Amino acid sequence: MPEPQAEFAIRVRDLVVGFGRQTVLDHLSLDVRCGEILGLVGASGGGKSVLMRTIIGLIPRRSGTIEVMGQTIGAPHDRSRAATWGILFQQGALFSSLTVRQNVQFPLRENLVLSQELMDEIAIAKLEMVGLRAQDGDKYPSELSGGMTKRVALARALALDPPILFLDEPTSGLDPIAAGDFDALIRTLQKTLGLTVFMVTHDLASLTTVCDRVAALADGKIVAIGPMRDLLQSEHPWVRAYFHGKRSQMLQPQMR
Ligand SMILES: Nc1ncnc2c1ncn2[C@@H]1O[C@H](COP(=O)(O)OP(=O)(O)OP(=O)(O)O)[C@@H](O)[C@H]1O
Prior knowledge:
- The chain is α/β, with parallel strands linked by helices.
- It has a domain at 91-161.
- The chain is 35% helix and 25% strand.
- It has helices at 48-55, 100-111, 116-129, 146-157, 176-193, 204-209, 228-233, 237-244, 246-251, and strands spanning 8-19, 22-33, 37-42, 63-68, 71-72, 85-88, 164-168, 196-200, 213-218, 221-226.
- The strands form 2 sheets. The protein has a 6-stranded mixed beta sheet with strand order 6-7-8-3-9-10, with helices on both faces. The chain has a 4-stranded antiparallel beta sheet with strand order 2-1-4-5, with helices on one face.
- Strand 7 (164-168), helix 5 and strand 8 (196-200) form a beta-alpha-beta unit.
- The chain is globular, with a radius of gyration of 18 Å.
- Bound molecules: adenosine-5'-triphosphate (ATP).
- Adenosine-5'-triphosphate is lined by residues 19, 24, 42, 44-50.
- It comes from Bradyrhizobium manausense.
- One of its GO terms (molecular function) is ATP binding.
- InterPro entries: AAA+_ATPase (IPR003593), ABC_transporter-like_ATP-bd (IPR003439), P-loop_NTPase (IPR027417).
- This is Iron ABC transporter ATP-binding protein.
- Residues 10-244 form the ABC transporter domain.
């Protein structure tokens, strides 16, 4: 029996996306439940970023349907969606000529008409939410560490209080302690704000400690989805190779 719609923040059905002769996503279907942290794994070049970018309307699809919070996603660059999701791109993608405060305020300026005083208050609140200080708002991106850059990008992603957060490899480039702190921050924000989080990651620690469910993308489709313990039992050859290969076992001996 089909599950009721309100249970899902994102529903993707039979999605086909390609470039020229290359088909990247081949009749892919995926449900993301409201309030969960879903981790997406897949081979390099397998289509994880393409899937994320197609869901947010940046890449056109050949066929299939996408619903986000019950609304069908139509034309690319649909600006009315700005408050539905926040996005953390892999490199943080801050504007280098703007201060931290101006970066966080950017979505507010683009989408709302607010006084400067209110925007300053919101920026301070968002910076504190991600573990930064109000005075960090005066810095420029070049003055930030990798971990701080990710936090500022997260504060900017949360500026419009979106119910959904997309994270593209959020812990890449961070040392294990900073990565663990960032994971903990994501978990805290998800719990306190009731966020739905869609996270592309290769980080086995993130998958094990913060994701409620993990989806594996191979051959253009989701070939396994469920809690990490279910993925570890999957018989799919790519999923087995990913989680039970030598490198994974060295990092996570308990996976054996
Ligand atoms: N705009 C584009 N035009 C043409 N081909 C593209 C475009 N974007 C992505 N591709 C191709 O789609 C495929 C999937 O790319 P994608 O970036 O989604 O991989 P990925 O799974 O995120 O990889 P990684 O883990 O290495 O970041 C690749 O073959 C890539 O070359």
